[in-house]
Amino acid sequence: MAPSFSSLPIVDVSMLSQTIPSPVSLAVLSQQLYDAFSATGFAYLINAPLRFGHEEVFGLASDFFSIEHAEKMKLAKKTFANRNGNTYRGYFPQQAGQQDNLKEGFEIGPPEPPQQTADSRHLRVDLGEANVWPEDARFAGRRKQFEKLHQELQALSATLLSLLAVALKKPADYFESDEVKLCCMPHTDSGILTLLHQDETGGLEVLNADGKWIAAPYVPGSIVVNIGDLLAEVSDGQFVATMHRVRTNTGERTNGAGRLSIPFFFEPGEKCVVRSMDGERAVVYGEHIRRKMATWVEYEDLPDIAQVEVVANGIPIEAH
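-> C-alpha cells emitted (320 positions)
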C-alpha cells in the first residue's frame, strides 16, 4: 500500500513539448516522476504534449453517448448482444443489479490491431480484435480523431516509461524490448501506466496507508497518471500501484451530462515476459491479465475467462 498522503502531486511536463529537451530538464522531470510514484503511485500531469484539449476529448465522448441506446447496442460486445461478433472492443451497457459499478463504456484499441492468429479468432474473448464504430453520420470524422488521440497517448506513455527507467537508474530504453524486464469498485490497474482524462464532476478517490480515501478532484487541463501492478512489480516496489475507486452520485457536468472519464491503459503484449529488476520473478503478461479479467464485472458470466488470449492497449471511454 502507498505511504500516507493527503493529496496528489502535480507534475508539469511542458518540457516534453520541446523538440530537443535539455538533459538537465529531463533529469529533473525524471526525479519528479520518481518522487510522485514512489510516494503515492498517482500524479496529475499538466501541460502534456497532446494536440487535443480537454473539451475536445470530452466532446468526442459526448458525441458517442448521445447516440440512441439501440444504436449503441449495435456495437455492444457479444456478452451483451449475442448477435454481435465483437467480443471485447465496442460498447458495454450499465449492468443491471450492479449498484457498485454504475457505468457504461465504449472501448477502442490501436488503429491497427495486432494480426490475429488462427487460435485467437476462435476465442470467446479476443482482445486483439479490430475496433467497431458507429454508423452515425456524426462519426464520419470522429474515428480519425479517436485514433489520433490513441496514438498520442501511446507516445506520451512510452516517454514517461523511458523517464521512469532512468529514475530507476536503468538505460532510457530499458523497457523497450519485447521481453520487458521488469465508477467502479476499488481496484489497482493491471498494466504499466494509466493516463486518465477526468471531467469536472469528480469522484476519483485514492486509498492511502492510513485507510483513508483521498479525493483526486478535477484539475483543469490535467491528465491523471497512475502506476499499474506490473510496473510496481518491475520496480521491485519502488513505485506503488495504489487502490482507487470512483464515487457515484457525485453530481453532473456543467452541460448537464453524467460523469465522463477516458482512461488509456499502457500495457505490454500478451506474450511479453515481465521480470522484476532482480530477475527473481517473472510472469507472462497474458496470464497475468487473464487472472485480473476473471474479477471484472463485465466478464463475470464467463467462468472460463482465464483461458482467453489478450493483446493490450485500449481506451475505454466511460460514462457514469
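The chain is about 25% helix and 15% strand.
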